[in-house]
Amino acid sequence: MERNVYISNMPLEKAQQLFAEKLQNCNWFSQDSENIPVKDALGRITAKPVMARRSSPHYVASAMDGVAVKSSSTFGATETNPIIIPSDEYLEVDTGDYVPKEYDAVIMVEDVNFLPEGIQIIKAAFPWQYIRSIGEDLVEGDMIIPSSTRIGPYELSSLITAGVDNVTVVKKIRVAIIPTGSELIEEAAPHMLPGEIVESNSYMLMSLCQEWGAIAIRHDIVIDDQLLIKQAVLDVLPDADLIVICSGSSAGREDYTSAVVSELGELLVHGLAIRPGKPAILGVIDQKPVIGVPGYPVSAQLIFSLLARPILYKKMGVAIPEDDQLNCSISKKIPSPMGVDEYVLVNVARIEDRLVAYPLNRGAGISSTLVKSDGVLHIARGQEGLEAGANCNIILNRSPQEIERTLITLGSHDLTIDFLIDILGKEHGVRLVSANVGSMGGIMALRRKETHFAGLHLLDYETGDYNTSYLQKYLPDQKWLLVNLVKRHQGLIVAPGNPLGIKNIQDLADKRVLYINRQKGAGTRILLDYLLKKANLHPSAINGYNREEYTHLAVAAAVKNDGCDTGLAVYASAKAMGLDFVPIAVERYDLCILADLVSPDQLDSLLAAIRSDEFKKQVNICGGYELDLCGQILYRHDL
User: Fold this and answer.
1) Nearest residue to 411 via CA among 375, 447, 376
2) 180-193 residue pLDDT tens
3) For the chain, N or C: smaller number of CB within 10 Å?
Protein backbone atom coordinates (compact mmCIF):
# COMPACT_ATOMS: atom_id res chain seq x y z
CA MET A 1 0.00 0.00 0.00
CA GLU A 2 1.41 3.39 -1.00
CA ARG A 3 1.62 6.17 1.54
CA ASN A 4 -1.21 8.68 1.61
CA VAL A 5 -0.37 12.25 0.74
CA TYR A 6 -2.19 15.37 1.83
CA ILE A 7 -4.70 16.40 -0.78
CA SER A 8 -4.74 19.98 0.43
CA ASN A 9 -3.54 22.54 2.90
CA MET A 10 -6.97 24.14 3.05
CA PRO A 11 -7.75 27.09 5.34
CA LEU A 12 -10.04 26.13 8.19
CA GLU A 13 -12.87 28.53 7.28
CA LYS A 14 -12.94 27.26 3.70
CA ALA A 15 -13.07 23.64 4.86
CA GLN A 16 -15.88 24.40 7.32
CA GLN A 17 -17.86 26.19 4.60
CA LEU A 18 -17.28 23.41 2.05
CA PHE A 19 -18.36 20.78 4.56
CA ALA A 20 -21.49 22.69 5.61
CA GLU A 21 -22.53 23.35 2.01
CA LYS A 22 -22.12 19.69 1.10
CA LEU A 23 -24.21 18.60 4.07
CA GLN A 24 -26.85 21.21 3.21
CA ASN A 25 -27.08 19.77 -0.30
CA CYS A 26 -27.45 16.30 1.24
CA ASN A 27 -30.33 17.63 3.38
CA TRP A 28 -28.40 16.39 6.40
CA PHE A 29 -29.37 19.36 8.57
CA SER A 30 -33.07 18.46 8.48
CA GLN A 31 -34.28 17.39 11.90
CA ASP A 32 -36.00 14.22 13.02
CA SER A 33 -38.23 14.54 16.08
CA GLU A 34 -39.69 12.26 18.72
CA ASN A 35 -42.30 12.55 21.44
CA ILE A 36 -41.03 11.77 24.93
CA PRO A 37 -42.35 12.05 28.51
CA VAL A 38 -41.74 15.53 29.83
CA LYS A 39 -39.99 14.19 32.92
CA ASP A 40 -37.32 12.69 30.63
CA ALA A 41 -36.83 15.90 28.66
CA LEU A 42 -34.07 17.62 30.65
CA GLY A 43 -31.38 18.79 28.25
CA ARG A 44 -33.42 18.01 25.14
CA ILE A 45 -34.23 20.56 22.44
CA THR A 46 -37.81 21.37 21.50
CA ALA A 47 -38.79 20.57 17.93
CA LYS A 48 -41.86 22.82 18.05
CA PRO A 49 -43.42 25.35 20.45
CA VAL A 50 -44.87 23.90 23.64
CA MET A 51 -48.24 25.25 24.83
CA ALA A 52 -49.70 25.25 28.32
CA ARG A 53 -52.43 22.65 28.78
CA ARG A 54 -53.75 24.31 31.93
CA SER A 55 -53.46 27.64 33.67
CA SER A 56 -51.20 28.14 36.63
CA PRO A 57 -52.58 28.58 39.13
CA HIS A 58 -55.83 27.08 37.91
CA TYR A 59 -57.71 28.45 40.93
CA VAL A 60 -57.66 31.62 43.03
CA ALA A 61 -54.88 31.00 45.55
CA SER A 62 -53.46 32.63 48.63
CA ALA A 63 -49.97 34.06 48.16
CA MET A 64 -49.26 34.20 51.92
CA ASP A 65 -49.97 32.48 55.22
CA GLY A 66 -52.73 34.51 56.91
CA VAL A 67 -56.47 35.15 56.77
CA ALA A 68 -58.76 35.63 53.78
CA VAL A 69 -61.17 38.55 54.18
CA LYS A 70 -63.49 40.85 52.28
CA SER A 71 -61.38 43.93 51.65
CA SER A 72 -64.41 46.15 52.24
CA SER A 73 -64.63 44.95 55.84
CA THR A 74 -61.12 46.28 56.54
CA PHE A 75 -61.54 49.84 55.31
CA GLY A 76 -60.76 52.47 57.95
CA ALA A 77 -58.48 50.27 60.07
CA THR A 78 -55.53 52.19 61.56
CA GLU A 79 -53.25 51.91 64.57
CA THR A 80 -55.41 54.43 66.41
CA ASN A 81 -58.64 52.92 65.12
CA PRO A 82 -58.22 49.11 64.95
CA ILE A 83 -61.04 47.02 63.51
CA ILE A 84 -62.22 43.65 64.79
CA ILE A 85 -63.50 41.22 62.16
CA PRO A 86 -65.81 38.52 63.58
CA SER A 87 -64.79 34.86 63.31
CA ASP A 88 -67.49 34.08 60.73
CA GLU A 89 -66.22 36.79 58.34
CA TYR A 90 -62.70 35.53 57.64
CA LEU A 91 -60.96 32.25 56.75
CA GLU A 92 -57.52 31.14 57.88
CA VAL A 93 -55.36 30.14 54.88
CA ASP A 94 -51.82 28.99 54.13
CA THR A 95 -49.75 29.82 51.08
CA GLY A 96 -51.26 28.08 48.05
CA ASP A 97 -54.66 27.42 49.64
CA TYR A 98 -57.83 27.93 47.61
CA VAL A 99 -59.53 31.26 48.41
CA PRO A 100 -63.35 31.06 48.11
CA LYS A 101 -65.01 33.66 45.91
CA GLU A 102 -66.59 35.53 48.85
CA TYR A 103 -63.12 36.75 49.85
CA ASP A 104 -60.97 39.14 47.81
CA ALA A 105 -57.91 39.79 50.00
CA VAL A 106 -55.45 38.06 52.32
CA ILE A 107 -53.84 39.64 55.38
CA MET A 108 -50.50 38.20 56.46
CA VAL A 109 -50.62 36.32 59.74
CA GLU A 110 -48.01 38.60 61.29
CA ASP A 111 -50.35 41.59 60.72
CA VAL A 112 -53.24 39.96 62.60
CA ASN A 113 -53.99 39.91 66.33
CA PHE A 114 -56.15 36.87 67.14
CA LEU A 115 -58.83 37.52 69.80
CA PRO A 116 -61.57 35.25 71.20
CA GLU A 117 -64.22 37.16 69.30
CA GLY A 118 -62.30 37.43 66.00
CA ILE A 119 -59.23 39.13 64.58
CA GLN A 120 -57.97 42.64 65.16
CA ILE A 121 -56.26 44.52 62.32
CA ILE A 122 -54.67 47.97 62.25
CA LYS A 123 -54.28 48.35 58.49
CA ALA A 124 -56.79 48.12 55.66
CA ALA A 125 -56.40 45.49 52.93
CA PHE A 126 -56.81 46.45 49.30
CA PRO A 127 -58.73 44.29 46.81
CA TRP A 128 -56.74 41.23 45.60
CA GLN A 129 -54.01 41.83 48.16
CA TYR A 130 -51.79 38.69 48.40
CA ILE A 131 -54.08 36.71 46.12
CA ARG A 132 -52.90 34.90 42.99
CA SER A 133 -55.49 35.03 40.24
CA ILE A 134 -56.11 32.21 37.78
CA GLY A 135 -53.37 32.21 35.12
CA GLU A 136 -51.10 34.62 36.98
CA ASP A 137 -48.13 32.43 35.98
CA LEU A 138 -49.39 30.65 32.85
CA VAL A 139 -52.65 30.78 30.95
CA GLU A 140 -53.94 27.69 29.18
CA GLY A 141 -52.93 27.92 25.52
CA ASP A 142 -49.99 30.24 26.14
CA MET A 143 -46.65 29.26 24.61
CA ILE A 144 -44.36 28.15 27.42
CA ILE A 145 -41.21 27.75 25.34
CA PRO A 146 -40.59 28.13 21.59
CA SER A 147 -38.98 25.59 19.30
CA SER A 148 -35.19 25.17 19.27
CA THR A 149 -34.99 25.68 23.03
CA ARG A 150 -32.89 23.49 25.28
CA ILE A 151 -35.03 22.33 28.20
CA GLY A 152 -33.34 23.19 31.47
CA PRO A 153 -34.48 22.74 35.08
CA TYR A 154 -36.67 25.88 35.01
CA GLU A 155 -38.30 25.01 31.69
CA LEU A 156 -38.96 21.48 32.93
CA SER A 157 -40.70 22.80 36.03
CA SER A 158 -42.89 25.16 33.98
CA LEU A 159 -43.87 22.38 31.57
CA ILE A 160 -44.96 20.10 34.39
CA THR A 161 -46.81 22.96 36.12
CA ALA A 162 -48.66 23.69 32.87
CA GLY A 163 -49.92 20.12 32.60
CA VAL A 164 -47.64 19.05 29.76
CA ASP A 165 -47.19 15.27 29.87
CA ASN A 166 -45.22 14.75 26.66
CA VAL A 167 -43.06 17.02 24.57
CA THR A 168 -41.83 16.83 20.98
CA VAL A 169 -38.07 17.17 20.87
CA VAL A 170 -35.31 16.96 18.30
CA LYS A 171 -34.11 13.40 18.02
CA LYS A 172 -30.61 13.03 19.42
CA ILE A 173 -27.87 12.88 16.82
CA ARG A 174 -26.05 9.54 16.83
CA VAL A 175 -22.28 9.78 16.45
CA ALA A 176 -20.37 6.58 15.69
CA ILE A 177 -16.74 6.68 16.79
CA ILE A 178 -14.30 4.14 15.35
CA PRO A 179 -10.85 3.96 16.99
CA THR A 180 -8.22 2.53 14.65
CA GLY A 181 -4.62 1.47 15.13
CA SER A 182 -2.71 -1.80 15.52
CA GLU A 183 -0.81 -0.25 18.42
CA LEU A 184 -3.96 0.39 20.46
CA ILE A 185 -5.16 -1.70 23.40
CA GLU A 186 -8.40 -1.41 25.33
CA GLU A 187 -6.91 -0.96 28.79
CA ALA A 188 -3.53 -0.72 30.45
CA ALA A 189 -1.91 -4.00 31.46
CA PRO A 190 0.48 -4.22 34.43
CA HIS A 191 3.39 -4.55 32.00
CA MET A 192 2.67 -2.92 28.66
CA LEU A 193 4.90 -3.75 25.72
CA PRO A 194 6.89 -1.02 23.96
CA GLY A 195 4.71 0.48 21.26
CA GLU A 196 1.40 -0.37 22.94
CA ILE A 197 -0.92 2.59 23.53
CA VAL A 198 -4.08 2.60 25.62
CA GLU A 199 -6.94 3.87 23.48
CA SER A 200 -8.50 6.89 25.17
CA ASN A 201 -9.32 9.39 22.44
CA SER A 202 -12.67 7.77 21.67
CA TYR A 203 -13.79 8.23 25.28
CA MET A 204 -12.82 11.90 25.19
CA LEU A 205 -14.81 12.40 21.97
CA MET A 206 -17.76 10.45 23.37
CA SER A 207 -17.81 12.71 26.41
CA LEU A 208 -17.76 15.80 24.20
CA CYS A 209 -20.70 14.39 22.22
CA GLN A 210 -22.68 13.88 25.42
CA GLU A 211 -21.76 17.37 26.64
CA TRP A 212 -23.09 18.83 23.39
CA GLY A 213 -26.31 16.79 23.47
CA ALA A 214 -25.56 13.94 21.05
CA ILE A 215 -25.42 10.17 21.55
CA ALA A 216 -22.02 8.56 21.06
CA ILE A 217 -21.63 4.95 19.94
CA ARG A 218 -18.14 3.49 20.26
CA HIS A 219 -16.96 0.74 17.93
CA ASP A 220 -14.34 -1.74 19.08
CA ILE A 221 -10.73 -0.95 18.16
CA VAL A 222 -9.96 -1.77 14.52
CA ILE A 223 -6.39 -2.68 13.55
CA ASP A 224 -4.65 -0.93 10.67
CA ASP A 225 -6.24 -2.91 7.88
CA GLN A 226 -8.07 -1.11 5.08
CA LEU A 227 -10.65 -3.85 4.58
CA LEU A 228 -11.43 -4.05 8.31
CA ILE A 229 -11.75 -0.28 8.63
CA LYS A 230 -14.02 -0.24 5.60
CA GLN A 231 -16.19 -2.96 7.14
CA ALA A 232 -16.38 -1.08 10.45
CA VAL A 233 -17.66 2.01 8.62
CA LEU A 234 -20.26 -0.09 6.80
CA ASP A 235 -21.32 -1.67 10.09
CA VAL A 236 -22.06 1.66 11.82
CA LEU A 237 -23.37 3.51 8.78
CA PRO A 238 -27.07 2.49 8.98
CA ASP A 239 -27.58 3.70 12.57
CA ALA A 240 -25.21 6.68 12.66
CA ASP A 241 -25.81 10.30 11.69
CA LEU A 242 -22.11 11.20 11.87
CA ILE A 243 -19.08 8.89 11.63
CA VAL A 244 -15.77 9.76 13.28
CA ILE A 245 -12.66 7.71 12.50
CA CYS A 246 -9.92 8.14 15.07
CA SER A 247 -6.32 8.03 13.80
CA GLY A 248 -5.28 6.84 10.38
CA SER A 249 -5.69 10.30 8.85
CA SER A 250 -2.01 11.11 8.37
CA ALA A 251 0.43 10.08 5.63
CA GLY A 252 1.85 6.96 7.24
CA ARG A 253 2.10 3.53 5.67
CA GLU A 254 -0.88 2.30 7.69
CA ASP A 255 -3.12 5.37 7.50
CA TYR A 256 -6.15 4.23 5.54
CA THR A 257 -8.94 6.66 6.47
CA SER A 258 -8.73 8.76 3.31
CA ALA A 259 -8.69 5.64 1.11
CA VAL A 260 -11.75 4.20 2.87
CA VAL A 261 -13.69 7.47 2.58
CA SER A 262 -12.76 7.80 -1.10
CA GLU A 263 -13.83 4.23 -1.82
CA LEU A 264 -17.17 4.41 -0.01
CA GLY A 265 -18.13 8.01 -0.69
CA GLU A 266 -16.60 11.41 -1.41
CA LEU A 267 -13.41 12.75 0.13
CA LEU A 268 -13.81 16.51 0.49
CA VAL A 269 -10.73 17.56 2.45
CA HIS A 270 -7.51 15.88 3.50
CA GLY A 271 -5.19 18.33 5.18
CA LEU A 272 -5.91 21.67 6.83
CA ALA A 273 -3.76 24.77 7.28
CA ILE A 274 -4.00 24.35 11.03
CA ARG A 275 -1.72 23.44 13.92
CA PRO A 276 -2.16 21.03 15.61
CA GLY A 277 -4.44 18.83 13.55
CA LYS A 278 -3.20 19.27 9.98
CA PRO A 279 -4.04 15.71 8.79
CA ALA A 280 -7.79 16.07 9.34
CA ILE A 281 -10.21 14.46 6.92
CA LEU A 282 -13.70 15.52 5.85
CA GLY A 283 -15.93 13.43 3.64
CA VAL A 284 -19.43 12.16 2.98
CA ILE A 285 -20.59 8.55 2.76
CA ASP A 286 -24.21 7.74 1.93
CA GLN A 287 -25.22 11.39 2.50
CA LYS A 288 -23.69 11.32 6.01
CA PRO A 289 -20.68 13.29 7.22
CA VAL A 290 -17.41 11.53 8.03
CA ILE A 291 -14.61 13.18 10.02
CA GLY A 292 -11.14 11.70 10.33
CA VAL A 293 -9.37 13.03 13.41
CA PRO A 294 -5.63 12.68 14.06
CA GLY A 295 -4.36 10.26 16.69
CA TYR A 296 -2.68 12.76 18.99
CA PRO A 297 -5.08 13.76 21.80
CA VAL A 298 -4.71 17.54 21.51
CA SER A 299 -5.15 17.35 17.74
CA ALA A 300 -8.16 15.04 18.09
CA GLN A 301 -9.89 17.36 20.57
CA LEU A 302 -9.22 20.47 18.50
CA ILE A 303 -10.33 19.00 15.18
CA PHE A 304 -13.45 17.45 16.69
CA SER A 305 -14.40 20.74 18.35
CA LEU A 306 -13.77 22.83 15.24
CA LEU A 307 -15.42 20.50 12.72
CA ALA A 308 -18.00 18.36 14.53
CA ARG A 309 -19.36 20.84 17.05
CA PRO A 310 -20.65 23.42 14.50
CA ILE A 311 -22.53 20.88 12.39
CA LEU A 312 -24.00 19.11 15.42
CA TYR A 313 -25.40 22.34 16.85
CA LYS A 314 -26.72 23.40 13.46
CA LYS A 315 -28.52 20.09 13.02
CA MET A 316 -29.96 20.41 16.54
CA GLY A 317 -31.22 23.88 15.62
CA VAL A 318 -29.55 25.80 18.43
CA ALA A 319 -26.71 28.30 18.56
CA ILE A 320 -23.32 27.22 19.82
CA PRO A 321 -22.94 28.48 23.41
CA GLU A 322 -20.68 31.49 23.63
CA ASP A 323 -17.39 30.81 25.39
CA ASP A 324 -16.03 33.22 27.98
CA GLN A 325 -13.06 35.21 26.72
CA LEU A 326 -10.41 37.28 28.47
CA ASN A 327 -7.97 39.81 27.10
CA CYS A 328 -4.49 38.89 28.32
CA SER A 329 -0.85 39.67 27.73
CA ILE A 330 1.27 36.74 26.62
CA SER A 331 4.13 35.78 28.95
CA LYS A 332 6.66 34.87 26.28
CA LYS A 333 7.24 35.01 22.55
CA ILE A 334 5.31 32.44 20.52
CA PRO A 335 6.67 31.83 17.02
CA SER A 336 4.14 30.58 14.49
CA PRO A 337 4.40 30.06 10.72
CA MET A 338 2.51 32.33 8.34
CA GLY A 339 -0.41 30.77 6.54
CA VAL A 340 -1.41 28.46 9.39
CA ASP A 341 -4.11 28.86 12.05
CA GLU A 342 -2.43 27.80 15.28
CA TYR A 343 -4.15 27.00 18.55
CA VAL A 344 -2.05 27.16 21.72
CA LEU A 345 -3.24 25.92 25.11
CA VAL A 346 -2.53 28.33 27.95
CA ASN A 347 -2.85 28.91 31.67
CA VAL A 348 -4.11 32.31 32.83
CA ALA A 349 -3.52 34.17 36.10
CA ARG A 350 -3.92 37.72 37.35
CA ILE A 351 -0.64 39.45 38.12
CA GLU A 352 -1.31 42.81 39.80
CA ASP A 353 -3.73 44.62 37.48
CA ARG A 354 -3.19 42.53 34.36
CA LEU A 355 -4.11 39.06 33.18
CA VAL A 356 -1.21 37.00 31.88
CA ALA A 357 -1.45 33.96 29.59
CA TYR A 358 1.24 31.29 29.93
CA PRO A 359 1.64 28.99 26.89
CA LEU A 360 1.74 25.29 27.70
CA ASN A 361 3.82 22.68 25.91
CA ARG A 362 2.70 22.68 22.28
CA GLY A 363 3.14 18.94 21.70
CA ALA A 364 -0.03 17.52 20.10
CA GLY A 365 0.46 14.22 21.93
CA ILE A 366 0.60 15.66 25.45
CA SER A 367 -2.90 14.94 26.72
CA SER A 368 -2.15 16.36 30.18
CA THR A 369 -2.14 19.88 28.71
CA LEU A 370 -5.86 19.49 27.98
CA VAL A 371 -6.43 18.84 31.68
CA LYS A 372 -4.17 21.63 32.91
CA SER A 373 -5.13 24.36 30.45
CA ASP A 374 -7.39 27.31 31.23
CA GLY A 375 -8.08 28.18 27.63
CA VAL A 376 -6.79 28.39 24.10
CA LEU A 377 -5.05 31.14 22.16
CA HIS A 378 -5.80 31.36 18.44
CA ILE A 379 -2.97 32.72 16.31
CA ALA A 380 -4.55 33.56 12.95
CA ARG A 381 -2.81 32.43 9.79
CA GLY A 382 -2.01 36.01 8.84
CA GLN A 383 0.15 36.45 11.94
CA GLU A 384 3.75 35.37 12.29
CA GLY A 385 3.48 34.51 15.97
CA LEU A 386 3.22 36.85 18.94
CA GLU A 387 5.84 38.82 20.82
CA ALA A 388 6.14 38.61 24.59
CA GLY A 389 3.73 41.07 26.21
CA ALA A 390 1.41 41.17 23.19
CA ASN A 391 -2.31 41.47 23.90
CA CYS A 392 -4.44 38.52 22.88
CA ASN A 393 -7.90 37.04 23.46
CA ILE A 394 -8.04 33.74 25.29
CA ILE A 395 -11.08 31.50 24.81
CA LEU A 396 -11.62 30.03 28.26
CA ASN A 397 -12.47 26.50 29.26
CA ARG A 398 -12.70 27.59 32.91
CA SER A 399 -14.81 30.29 34.47
CA PRO A 400 -13.37 33.80 34.93
CA GLN A 401 -14.03 33.34 38.65
CA GLU A 402 -11.62 30.39 38.74
CA ILE A 403 -9.00 32.47 36.97
CA GLU A 404 -9.32 35.23 39.57
CA ARG A 405 -8.51 32.84 42.41
CA THR A 406 -5.47 31.37 40.66
CA LEU A 407 -1.89 31.58 41.87
CA ILE A 408 0.90 30.75 39.43
CA THR A 409 4.26 29.28 40.36
CA LEU A 410 7.05 29.07 37.81
CA GLY A 411 10.31 27.53 38.89
CA SER A 412 12.00 24.30 39.81
CA HIS A 413 10.04 21.09 39.81
CA ASP A 414 9.33 19.18 42.99
CA LEU A 415 6.75 16.51 43.70
CA THR A 416 5.61 18.27 46.88
CA ILE A 417 4.16 21.15 44.84
CA ASP A 418 1.38 18.74 43.87
CA PHE A 419 0.49 18.35 47.55
CA LEU A 420 0.21 22.14 47.87
CA ILE A 421 -2.04 22.26 44.80
CA ASP A 422 -4.40 19.76 46.39
CA ILE A 423 -4.45 21.30 49.88
CA LEU A 424 -4.83 24.89 48.68
CA GLY A 425 -7.76 23.97 46.48
CA LYS A 426 -9.46 21.71 48.99
CA GLU A 427 -8.97 23.71 52.18
CA HIS A 428 -8.51 27.33 51.07
CA GLY A 429 -10.30 27.74 47.74
CA VAL A 430 -7.05 28.83 46.08
CA ARG A 431 -6.21 27.35 42.69
CA LEU A 432 -2.48 26.83 42.24
CA VAL A 433 -1.00 26.28 38.78
CA SER A 434 2.63 25.25 38.36
CA ALA A 435 4.99 25.13 35.41
CA ASN A 436 8.48 23.70 35.45
CA VAL A 437 11.03 26.16 34.08
CA GLY A 438 13.97 25.45 36.40
CA SER A 439 15.27 27.51 39.29
CA MET A 440 16.92 30.18 37.13
CA GLY A 441 13.83 30.32 34.95
CA GLY A 442 11.84 30.92 38.13
CA ILE A 443 14.12 33.78 39.20
CA MET A 444 13.80 35.40 35.78
CA ALA A 445 10.00 35.05 35.99
CA LEU A 446 10.09 36.71 39.43
CA ARG A 447 12.24 39.48 38.04
CA ARG A 448 9.75 40.12 35.23
CA LYS A 449 6.81 39.85 37.68
CA GLU A 450 5.31 36.94 35.76
CA THR A 451 4.82 34.59 38.71
CA HIS A 452 3.48 34.91 42.23
CA PHE A 453 6.20 32.68 43.63
CA ALA A 454 8.91 30.29 42.48
CA GLY A 455 10.44 27.07 43.76
CA LEU A 456 14.24 27.31 43.96
CA HIS A 457 17.22 25.16 44.97
CA LEU A 458 20.21 27.13 43.69
CA LEU A 459 23.49 26.27 45.37
CA ASP A 460 25.98 29.08 45.96
CA TYR A 461 29.37 27.51 45.17
CA GLU A 462 31.20 29.97 47.41
CA THR A 463 29.09 29.84 50.59
CA GLY A 464 27.34 26.49 50.32
CA ASP A 465 24.05 28.30 51.01
CA TYR A 466 20.95 28.05 48.83
CA ASN A 467 19.00 30.69 46.90
CA THR A 468 19.59 33.87 48.95
CA SER A 469 22.61 35.21 47.06
CA TYR A 470 20.90 34.63 43.70
CA LEU A 471 17.78 36.47 44.83
CA GLN A 472 19.79 39.39 46.20
CA LYS A 473 21.60 39.62 42.88
CA TYR A 474 18.61 39.36 40.55
CA LEU A 475 15.81 40.89 42.68
CA PRO A 476 17.46 43.85 44.42
CA ASP A 477 14.51 46.20 43.82
CA GLN A 478 11.61 43.92 44.77
CA LYS A 479 9.99 42.91 48.04
CA TRP A 480 10.18 39.18 48.59
CA LEU A 481 10.34 36.58 51.29
CA LEU A 482 12.02 33.20 51.22
CA VAL A 483 10.11 30.31 52.81
CA ASN A 484 11.47 26.80 53.14
CA LEU A 485 9.24 24.10 51.73
CA VAL A 486 11.42 21.02 52.29
CA LYS A 487 14.94 19.74 52.41
CA ARG A 488 15.30 16.94 49.93
CA HIS A 489 17.66 14.10 49.14
CA GLN A 490 19.24 14.32 45.69
CA GLY A 491 21.00 11.32 44.25
CA LEU A 492 21.63 9.12 41.26
CA ILE A 493 18.61 7.10 40.15
CA VAL A 494 19.56 3.65 38.88
CA ALA A 495 17.79 0.49 37.77
CA PRO A 496 16.79 -2.00 40.50
CA GLY A 497 19.88 -3.77 41.80
CA ASN A 498 22.16 -1.04 40.39
CA PRO A 499 23.49 -3.30 37.60
CA LEU A 500 26.44 -1.02 36.73
CA GLY A 501 27.44 -0.56 40.35
CA ILE A 502 27.22 3.25 40.26
CA LYS A 503 28.28 4.65 43.64
CA ASN A 504 29.28 8.29 43.13
CA ILE A 505 29.67 11.16 40.69
CA GLN A 506 33.04 9.85 39.47
CA ASP A 507 31.30 6.74 38.11
CA LEU A 508 29.46 8.91 35.58
CA ALA A 509 32.69 9.09 33.55
CA ASP A 510 32.44 5.36 32.83
CA LYS A 511 31.67 5.16 29.10
CA ARG A 512 29.24 2.31 29.73
CA VAL A 513 27.02 4.72 31.66
CA LEU A 514 24.39 6.67 29.69
CA TYR A 515 23.35 9.73 31.72
CA ILE A 516 20.12 11.74 31.49
CA ASN A 517 20.52 15.39 32.52
CA ARG A 518 18.21 18.22 33.59
CA GLN A 519 17.74 21.33 31.48
CA LYS A 520 20.01 24.36 31.63
CA GLY A 521 19.08 26.65 34.54
CA ALA A 522 17.64 23.83 36.65
CA GLY A 523 18.94 23.71 40.20
CA THR A 524 19.70 20.01 39.76
CA ARG A 525 21.82 20.84 36.70
CA ILE A 526 23.69 23.48 38.72
CA LEU A 527 24.22 20.94 41.51
CA LEU A 528 25.60 18.41 39.02
CA ASP A 529 28.00 20.97 37.55
CA TYR A 530 29.20 21.82 41.06
CA LEU A 531 29.76 18.15 41.88
CA LEU A 532 31.57 17.57 38.57
CA LYS A 533 33.83 20.52 39.27
CA LYS A 534 34.64 19.17 42.74
CA ALA A 535 35.45 15.79 41.18
CA ASN A 536 37.63 17.42 38.47
CA LEU A 537 35.37 16.03 35.74
CA HIS A 538 34.55 17.95 32.56
CA PRO A 539 30.95 17.71 31.28
CA SER A 540 32.28 16.30 28.00
CA ALA A 541 33.38 13.20 29.93
CA ILE A 542 29.72 12.37 30.72
CA ASN A 543 27.94 10.29 28.09
CA GLY A 544 24.49 11.92 27.78
CA TYR A 545 25.31 15.24 29.48
CA ASN A 546 23.50 17.15 26.71
CA ARG A 547 20.37 15.00 26.79
CA GLU A 548 17.79 16.88 28.89
CA GLU A 549 14.53 16.38 30.74
CA TYR A 550 12.47 18.98 32.63
CA THR A 551 11.32 17.16 35.75
CA HIS A 552 12.58 14.66 38.30
CA LEU A 553 9.89 12.20 37.29
CA ALA A 554 10.88 12.51 33.64
CA VAL A 555 14.47 11.65 34.60
CA ALA A 556 13.24 8.61 36.52
CA ALA A 557 11.05 7.56 33.59
CA ALA A 558 14.05 7.81 31.23
CA VAL A 559 16.00 5.46 33.49
CA LYS A 560 13.10 3.05 33.79
CA ASN A 561 11.86 2.98 30.20
CA ASP A 562 14.18 4.81 27.84
CA GLY A 563 17.52 3.04 28.08
CA CYS A 564 19.30 5.56 30.29
CA ASP A 565 21.41 4.19 33.14
CA THR A 566 21.24 7.04 35.63
CA GLY A 567 20.28 10.64 36.28
CA LEU A 568 20.43 13.07 39.19
CA ALA A 569 17.01 13.53 40.83
CA VAL A 570 15.21 13.44 44.16
CA TYR A 571 14.60 10.22 46.05
CA ALA A 572 10.82 10.55 45.78
CA SER A 573 10.95 10.19 41.99
CA ALA A 574 13.02 7.01 42.28
CA LYS A 575 10.53 5.59 44.78
CA ALA A 576 7.59 6.51 42.56
CA MET A 577 9.12 4.58 39.64
CA GLY A 578 10.31 1.58 41.66
CA LEU A 579 13.99 2.38 41.06
CA ASP A 580 17.06 2.34 43.28
CA PHE A 581 18.71 5.47 44.62
CA VAL A 582 22.33 6.38 45.37
CA PRO A 583 22.33 9.36 47.81
CA ILE A 584 24.56 12.27 46.79
CA ALA A 585 23.41 15.43 48.61
CA VAL A 586 20.75 17.02 50.81
CA GLU A 587 19.59 20.37 49.47
CA ARG A 588 17.18 23.10 50.53
CA TYR A 589 14.13 23.66 48.35
CA ASP A 590 12.59 27.08 49.08
CA LEU A 591 9.76 29.22 47.77
CA CYS A 592 10.47 32.85 46.91
CA ILE A 593 7.21 34.80 47.21
CA LEU A 594 6.80 38.29 45.74
CA ALA A 595 5.15 40.35 48.49
CA ASP A 596 3.60 42.86 46.08
CA LEU A 597 1.91 40.20 43.94
CA VAL A 598 0.40 38.00 46.65
CA SER A 599 -2.39 39.38 48.82
CA PRO A 600 -2.23 38.95 52.62
CA ASP A 601 -5.05 36.40 52.44
CA GLN A 602 -3.28 34.43 49.72
CA LEU A 603 -0.03 34.48 51.69
CA ASP A 604 -1.83 33.28 54.81
CA SER A 605 -3.42 30.44 52.84
CA LEU A 606 -0.11 29.43 51.27
CA LEU A 607 1.75 29.40 54.59
CA ALA A 608 -1.10 27.54 56.28
CA ALA A 609 -1.01 24.86 53.59
CA ILE A 610 2.78 24.48 53.89
CA ARG A 611 2.61 24.21 57.67
CA SER A 612 -0.40 21.90 57.74
CA ASP A 613 -0.28 18.40 59.16
CA GLU A 614 -1.77 17.11 55.91
CA PHE A 615 1.13 18.49 53.84
CA LYS A 616 3.73 17.04 56.19
CA LYS A 617 1.95 13.70 56.24
CA GLN A 618 1.99 13.48 52.44
CA VAL A 619 5.64 14.50 52.26
CA ASN A 620 6.65 11.85 54.78
CA ILE A 621 4.76 9.17 52.86
CA CYS A 622 6.61 10.24 49.72
CA GLY A 623 10.00 9.77 51.40
CA GLY A 624 13.37 11.39 50.81
CA TYR A 625 12.54 14.70 52.48
CA GLU A 626 13.35 16.46 55.74
CA LEU A 627 10.91 18.91 57.34
CA ASP A 628 12.83 20.58 60.15
CA LEU A 629 12.70 23.97 58.33
CA CYS A 630 9.31 23.46 56.64
CA GLY A 631 7.23 26.65 56.64
CA GLN A 632 9.93 28.83 58.21
CA ILE A 633 10.47 32.30 56.75
CA LEU A 634 14.23 32.25 56.15
CA TYR A 635 14.70 35.74 54.73
CA ARG A 636 12.69 38.93 54.13
CA HIS A 637 13.82 41.45 51.58
CA ASP A 638 12.08 44.77 52.22
CA LEU A 639 12.87 47.96 50.34
Assistant:
1) 447
2) 999 999 987 777 88
3) C
